[in-house]
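[scheduler] slot 2 assigned
[scheduler] job type: sequence-to-structure, two independent chains
[scheduler] chain ordering preserved from manifest
[runner] begin chain α
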Amino acid sequence: MKKIQLNPVGWMSQLSQVEVSRLEDTTNSELYRMFRNCCLAVLNSGVDEDNYEALFSPYDSFEIRLIKRERGVKLELINPPEVGFVDNRLVRGVHEHLFSVLRDMLYMGNKYAFVHQQAPLDSSGITDMVFDMLRHAKVIESNNDLNTIVCWGGHSIGLTDYKYTKDVGYQLGLREMNICTGCGPGAMKGPMKGAAIGHAKQRFKEGRYIGISEPSIIAAEPPNAIVNELVIMPDIEKRLEAFVRIAHGIVIFPGGVGTAEELLYLLGILSHERNAQQPYPLVLTGPAGSEGYFEAIHDFIGSTLGKSAQSKYQIIIDDPAEVAKVLCQGSKKVEQYRLAMGDAFSFNWSLKIEDDFQQPFIPSHKSMAALNLHRDQPLSDLASNLRKAFSGIVAGNVKAEGVKQIRELGPFHLSGEADIMSRIDALLKQFVAQQRMKLPGTEYQPCYTINRD
């Protein structure tokens, strides 16, 4: 049996005895099991695998324990994966990420009663929680330079797309912009890798590569090796809110349902009348040959949310330098607006996010079948429901609880207005044909059926 003890690093090295005792109280909870799985994912950092069973099954004997010390708490790893070690020493970045998991899952989880699933339910309380978790992770204090670009895109992308994400990241890095992604492989890794080279060329030593995940995603998509700030939000809705509140601009690369979910979430928010005047740089971009992908996305948005939603973004094909220029210019408009509003540079408090975009949506056969996918509702509500539909498909594709439901009860059933369902069906079929649902080489079995009213 292999045992490794780790000293605390960062903020977690400064805990009081009361705080340590509270951490100990979580060790018999369901949350602690989730904490164990997230730590196992972190120890597999850099492994390209989106099947949680394949990732976890070789490590049934892995355990992680808290060891109370006068100056804080140590972690003890029992039978950890060898991939996290070099010459029998744990990789330093992995060491730091393990204590990030401890901070977010157990310390903050205990503070906000995730153990009992009693997190704040009102809108302002949720935003305050998101801010507090980012502040404890020290994301906020370093976010005043208006240079954080959030990059969204698929974890399952081909080599051409991947190289393009690196090229865009490189151009952003040359302009001393920092990168925030979902922290996994593919379009989440490429921009960070490119930016790291751009930062090195500019001798920019404050490069930040922020990865924001959530428990059910990180278990299927381990953090990539470039991430130097890891944050784990309690659910997908708070993860998405964290992205849009700290971003000074967003770039979206080709992806699958998860990327479509993110775009619909943001467009639903930007379509709110209180956000109409707020500059929010948003670029959809990909290499030559991706025109068809973006035409399909653009047509889908136009046919469901309308021209107003289409006006919220611009599409740039095969021009990384132009993407970086547009985002840099956009960040200056963000600065002017925040100064005029008296809003913080580090956290976008003035962005209005409706309650329906904040409340956790738990995909199940019942909740997926109940989604209102018709046009006879406000556009923001339709955007929210479309987002939930795609979120459920992400769960059925890669999340442990979703995969289990599909295995036991069959695919989710989505029903709605015939034209909308036909457009969803066509978009999803394109994702499948382009191998954007699962990592390349993996045969995809749909976790959904499309029904037209």
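[runner] end chain α
[runner] begin chain β
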Amino acid sequence: MDVTERKYQFGTEENQAFMKEIREDLLKFGHQFPSPGGSSYYLGDDGTPWKDRNRETWITCRMTHVYSIGSMLGHEGSEALVDAALKGIRGELHDDKNGGWYAGLTKDGEIVPTKQCYAHAFAILAATSGILAGREGAKELLEDALKVYDLRFWNEEEGLSCDTWNTEFTELDPYRGVNANMHTVEAFLAAADAIGDEKYRVRAGRIIDHVISWAKNNSWRIPEHFYSNWEPDLECNKDRPDDQFKPYGATPGHGIEWARLITQWALSTYKEDKTGAAPYIQAAENLYNRAIADGWNADGAPGIVYTTDWDGNPIVHDRMHWTLAEAINTSAVLYRVTGKEKYTADYAEFMAYLDEKVLDHVNGSWFHQLDRQNHLLTTVWPGKSDIYHALQATLIPYCNPGLSVAAAVKKQDYA
């Protein structure tokens, strides 16, 4: 095996060095995100802020999370960046009148309406990582975020979260979605790891049980969109198949991401009970393998297609960077948990594809959207909005698979 091949192989010194190089590049790339008020600018192709775009709450929270990790890794300047983002989340993005967080702010500082479960889940994640990094204000942020989330989004009877309120929290949209619940699982696991409140791990498990049931009854393709009674809406957005947050059909990248989160939950819940964890690990394998079979190289070129129909045929052939990031994560995690060599073979393929097609070796970071021939495309994700998925993909493969990534970095719990 030559040096280049070793660079792509899980567990080699060359691969770990390659990951570190990518990680440092990403952390340097994102330095210009804070606006004067702390909310995050959307980053352009070379990391320069696109100040004419909205400053999204979910992006600001993600940047808090990644630079909290950066500070624990010793990346210079991270602490100031975390503090700036925390200022934005606790300040201009926060609705002091109605509680919770606006979806974002326009370039002119006007409120972007609605209150999104998605953004509030990321507020929890940001706060937990800030706590682990020892940043001032993070504890208070988490207390606020959990209180609002418990009041407005979590439904204890259903064991699931709703999706979107109006700004005043007086009207609840009838749409229900799995994407916000997926990031809720991520946030709840992070909260349990950061502050030791196990009720959030239990809640994550309730969401997971629903998702596994839906997927199992749908050939392991997860229904993404639902009516208010949690009946799947399999035809949602058929006329707008590449919608940024609600695309039609199955999203292989989400099947892959769920597989990793389910594995993390199972390992952290059944720590000494392999029998209890086993059906969840099997479900994770089923989700991952279905997604890879449907999505990877589905049209004769490397990359994972964005969406498929309910028979696994590609609908939107574009390759999104976050999908590859999750594939890198999950293939490594499943190899470490199951020992099956096919997962390391997948990992090596994904790493080679990352290096050859998705890494921007000129301007830094990862290209966020490529077409079916792996040429740059900007219809859904122009520029390089943030570094969350990409940064995590340089860490999760080597972190304890039963821990949230920030907690694993804090504990230096690496493979």
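[runner] end chain β
[qc] chain β: The mean pLDDT is 97.
[scheduler] slot 2 released
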